[in-house]
Amino acid sequence: MDGIKVGPVGGRGGSYWDEKGGELAGIFVSYDEDTVYSLQFMYYKSGKLIMSDKYGGRQCESYSAIVLDYPSEFLTSISGSFERVKKSILLTSIQFGTNKGSYGPFGTPSTDGNVKQPSTMNCNGIESIGFYVKDIPSSVIKLKDSPVKVKKEREEKD
């Protein structure tokens, strides 16, 4: 995977994983109100759809599948929040932005910085996250779909 590694951010616990599948085509999120429990990714590689391993815990109160309109839709942003839960720092919400819209938030974004300590939490969730980023080929970008307004400059007559 060509790209620049960004992160990880969050806590320092849990198991390290480094997914380098291919061209991202989907994301599967398991979560509840307080925690993002797991993430799984779907890729196109050599013309085939491939599923990654499932990363995080096994709990699943809610489950959402994000299926990108591949190849014309791609991630442009990821945001989320972490909070200390018992002795761990866990991902409590995540939201994905694409060139065509946004998905989420999954979980509840932190707004006050308070520590959550639900009695049923056993700390099996996503403790940190990072990503590989790469340039977007200009052939993929269509200005009519872009949220950025482009103005034509007038030629000055001498």
- List how many beta strands DSSP finds: 10
What are the segments in which pLDDT stays under 50 over at least 5 consecutive residues?
A: 113-123, 148-158
Instruction: Give the percentage of residues in beta strands.
Output: over 45%
Question: Strand-and-helix sequence, N→C?
Answer: EEEEEEEEEE
Rg, Å, rounded: 18 Å
Alpha plus pi helix count: 0
What is the typical, i.e. mean, pLDDT? 76
Helix content: under 10%
**Alpha-carbon distance between the two ends:** 50 Å
Layout of strands and helices, then pairs:
Layout: E1 4-10, E2 23-31, E3 36-45, E4 48-51, E5 55-56, E6 62-67, E7 75-85, E8 88-98, E9 101-107, E10 128-133
Antiparallel strand pairs: 1-10, 2-3, 2-6, 3-4, 3-5, 7-8, 8-9
